Amino acid sequence: MRILITNDDGINAPGLKVLETIAEDLAGPDGEVWIVAPAFEQSGVGHCISYTHPMMVAKMGPRRYAAEGSPADCVLAGLHHVMGDERPDLILSGVNRGNNSAENALYSGTLGGAMEGALQGILSIAMSQYLGPYNFQADNPFEAAEQHGAALVRKLLGALPEDEDDYQLFFNVNFPPVPAEDVKGMRIAPQGFRRHTHFGIEPHRSPSGRQFLWIKGGDQHIPTAEGSDAAVNLEGYISVTPMRADLTAHDVLDQLKALE
Prior knowledge:
This protein is α/β, with parallel strands linked by helices and about 260 residues long. The protein contains seven helices and eleven strands.
């Protein structure tokens, strides 16, 4: 199996090393793992692409490249430049430091990389590690992802439905904020919504008197609706959410047709 991996935390992020381990397990001794990851952290860029300026790509080692761009840029660079004529069988993005459950998915560069892979017609899986009081200070906060990641991907690969839609499936996987031995299993879960929490602004003034604004996240431990992604994560389960890049609100199409 040929696997392309990327992330949004950057080429030197510990979560990318964890993803390398997962990918090497999946690829096997006769497979290939290619890495094209951002040269610098790209958290929160979503599905951004560098459409109006070029990006530099540097070879860091065998099958290992750093790109001055977003995760979606990295996927494009990997598919159309770095890997040559042979496309990968699978794209993995992550393992993100922090969850991409609920509304976080809308901001996530990790998800953006997987979304671009799906738009290019390749099965893509985004993987993120929820952090909390039971793993944040651990020697390896990615332990749950590291120990359960490869088996989870194999399970998905063995049960994929036929997918002939224009907007192909990709998957958002979030590992719970617990040690690996406390993971209770896996749940197929819809994307949730954390009520009464959202991103905001925290202003600061520099010593020179200039005003700077920091983006500030909300409480990540507010559960979402029962059975949805963040809710099952906080209960100790891995969440798997099938997604498409189609943003249409299909539930109101018929209702709005009365306006025609």
